[in-house]
Amino acid sequence: MNIIKTFEIRYCFAGSQRTFTYQGVRLSDSDTWYLAFLHSGCLITHDTPCGGTYRTMQRFAERSGVTLANWRELSEKT
């Protein structure tokens, strides 16, 4: 059985720190960079990757102005 967890994602964009929550079964570092990119409101283009390695997603997000993306689990552990 998959348990839905709650994660907090923090990143910087346009000089300000932003925070949001994400719910899912798991979260990877590359997912974090992609979700931060989407949350930032940057335009999605035909060459926007929708998955890939950590470095691929980090470089792409940083080129779009997203920096310092990180996450932590908020869900209580039982």
SSE series: EEHHE
| Number of DSSP E strands | 3
Distance between the termini: 15 Å
Indicate the proportion of strand residues.
Answer: 25-35%
Rounded to an integer in angstroms, the radius of gyration calculated over CA atoms is: 13 Å
Tell me the domain tally.
1
Tally of helical segments: 2
Walk me through the structure:
By secondary structure, the chain is of the alpha+beta class. It has one domain. It is built from two helices and three strands, in the order ββααβ. It has a three-stranded antiparallel sheet with strand order 2-1-3. Strand 1 and strand 2 form a beta hairpin.
Topology (elements, then pairings):
Elements: E1 5-13, E2 16-24, H1 29-40, H2 54-63, E3 66-73
Antiparallel strand pairs: 1-2, 1-3
Helix pairs in contact: 1-2
Pfam families: DUF6555
Protein name: Phage protein
InterPro entries: DUF6555
